[in-house]
Structure formats: C-alpha cells, structure tokens
TrEMBL record:
Region (Disordered) residue spans: 42-65
Classification of source organism: Bacteria, Bacillati, Bacillota, Clostridia, Eubacteriales
Record has Kinase as a keyword: yes
Protein name: HAMP domain-containing histidine kinase
SUPFAM superfamilies noted in UniProt: ATPase domain of HSP90 chaperone/DNA topoisomerase II/histidine kinase
Keyword set, alphabetical order: Kinase, Transferase
Superkingdom as given in the UniProt entry: Bacteria
Keyword Transcription (UniProt): no
InterPro entries, per the entry: HATPase_C_sf
GO molecular function: kinase activity
C-alpha cells in the first residue's frame, strides 16, 4: 500500500531498457505491464501483451506503442 512496488518496477524498466505501462478505469481496476528485452542490449519493438486487460472495455484506449 505504500507505492514502492510501482517505483521499483519503474526503476527495473529503466535499468533494463524496457517499458512500464499502466492502464486503469473506475470499477475495472488497474493493470500494469513491465516489458524488458529477452537478451541484454536487446531492443523492444512491440509488447507481447496488450496495453489493457483482454476483458476490459477498450473503446477509448490509445493505440499500442
């Protein structure tokens, strides 16, 4: 409940040249996605997971990176 988990995840994303994204809607909860390269020095072109949960209402979500 202190918010440290998100701060640590953000630092992990930065250290590993990855992405940390968050999605949330009232009454639908929050969804966090941490993506890091499989190999050291690798480049991420596209996330293997959607930006929002598959069962969420995505009618007005922004496009994927």
């Amino acid at each position: 409940g202190s918010g440290l988990g998100l701060a640590i995840s953000r630092q992990d994303a930065n250290l590993h040249h990855g992405w940390l994204t968050a999605w949330g809607r009232p009454n639908q909860g929050a969804y966090f996605r941490l993506v890091v390269p499989r190999q050291p020095g690798g480049v991420i072109v596209k996330s293997p997971l959607p930006a929002s949960p598959t069962d969420a209402d995505r009618s007005d979500d922004e496009e994927e990176r």
